[in-house]
Amino acid sequence: MLVSSFALAACSDGGKTEAPSSSSNAGSETPKAAADSKPAEITIMAPLNTSETPPDTIVKELEKLTNTKLTYQFFPADSYEEKLNTTFATGGLPAVTYLKNQATFIQMKSAIRDGQFWEIGPYLKDFPNLSKLKSTTLDNTKVDGKLYTLYRGVDIARQGMIYRKDWADKLGLKPPETTEDLYNMMKAFTEKDPDGNGKNDTIGLTDRNDLIYGAFKTVASWIGVPNNWGEKDGKLQPEFMFPEYIQAMDYFKKLRDEGIINKDFAATSKTDQKKLFTNGTAGIYVGAMTDVESLNKDLVKNVPTAVVDVHSMIAGPTGKYAAWALPGYANVMLFPKSAIKDEAELKKILAFFDKMMTPEVANLVYWGIKDVHYTLVDGQAKKLDKELVEREVKAFTDAAVGDEDTTGRYIGLSDVPAMTKAQKLKIDNLEYAVQDPTAPLESKTYLEKGVQLQEIIKDATYKYMYGNLDKAGFEKAIEDWKSRGGNKIIEEYNAAYKK
């Protein structure tokens, strides 16, 4: 059961843990300097992607290593945007405020322009570890050329398919090389009784109500749809104005019409999407390949003989490979002026995040405590108890800063072969990564109306795939998008693109 959206603290003592009387050496401070300095008190608000708030196990260690007194305010990710907006409206944002994703960052840009958050770009040069943050990712998070955020890095091209290899082997199917092969595999998983129980109770693909992180965007990229925006006829245009977008919708409509996908996918949560895979109903899950470890764990509880595998190189009708790429960050954090009174306080907070990027601290918030949560095998971290890591560590992993390579944290070692393969494939995907050309660009109209206007396209896309809208109806929705501000967005992005 999720915690109440009004539960403010991550820790059992209300989110505040007393700092130890002495502090270990962290960053560039000497032990004596760290012990003599007063712990910096920092309150952090972040989304919670686990079922309950973690105990204070990691917080206590984090405070020791960084000489801080920390208060974490975690709120369930499903309702985080609502809580974020409410807290912002009442002027109650804490000193460190994580957003949720790229979309919430875009929504917050007008407030950033209004001067409500600290610009931190000029300070990064003073911090040796923060200076290691990737310039391309930082550029993608700038507002009018200025940096206001730190970011939590993400695998740039991690998307692919997770599938039942035991089903594929039974039916004599190889990993799909094309989207047509993928369709044939999904159809066979639906119609040829891959679980051998003599019942018509399996489907090829499980999906959810998310056109980006669900299956649609990944399959669409294989078909040839650009990443949010692409260049056509010499100018930038949104993805849904490309003919390949219609092809992608037709692909999913066919899956639904033939019962190859869960028919209510537009109303299916991620939790329920995963359950369809882990309870043995669906044979394929399209999304982040690194989800394979958790999916496998739950699947083998229900189907002990199940074998999973991952795959990503799938060509569309043109024969080309493509993998849509994230802008380098999963989340960003802002520093409200309403909560940080002066430059000196801001520098103390930045110093905390500088220490968060040291290997020692980065490993703590990513892997946990050595010999409690993980052990080292040939220099790689292997989880000792995955459920314990999920319960006690994951919330802090999601509130980290930097990347695997910029922090020097350990690479993971999994006892699930498909997870090891997924780690390799996400690197292989980089060769075919398709970037969003508008990621570093600005459109005033998009900031004001983009999220609202996107609902027109989202609604029309689902209606088309459900068979409630034809091509003419979808094109009418595009014209509606254009007339309500879309034409202005196209104009502004192209003006910025040419600079």
Please give a quick description of this structure.
The chain has helices at 31-36, 57-66, 80-89, 102-113, 135-140, 165-170, 179-191, 216-223, 243-257, 270-278, 292-302, 343-356, 359-367, 386-392, 394-397, 404-407, 417-428, 444-465, 471-497; strands spanning 40-48, 68-76, 96-98, 150-153, 159-164, 203-206, 229-232, 235-238, 282-288, 308-311, 323-324, 329-334, 374-377, 380-383, 433-434.
For this structure, the quaternary state is: single chain
Structural class: alpha/beta
Tell me, briefly, the overall form.
globular
Number of strands: 15
Overview of the structural elements:
The chain is of the alpha/beta class and 499 residues long. 41% of the residues lie in helices and 14% in strands. The protein has helices spanning 31-36, 57-66, 80-89, 102-113, 135-140, 165-170, 179-191, 216-223, 243-257, 270-278, 292-302, 343-356, 359-367, 386-392, 394-397, 404-407, 417-428, 444-465, 471-497, and strands at residues 40-48, 68-76, 96-98, 150-153, 159-164, 203-206, 229-232, 235-238, 282-288, 308-311, 323-324, 329-334, 374-377, 380-383, 433-434. A 5-stranded mixed sheet has the order 2-1-3-12-4. A 4-stranded mixed sheet has the order 6-9-5-10, sandwiched between helices. Helix 2 (57-66) links the parallel strand 1 and strand 2. Helix 2 packs antiparallel against helix 13 (359-367), helix 8 (216-223) crosses helix 9 and helix 18 (444-465) runs antiparallel to helix 19.
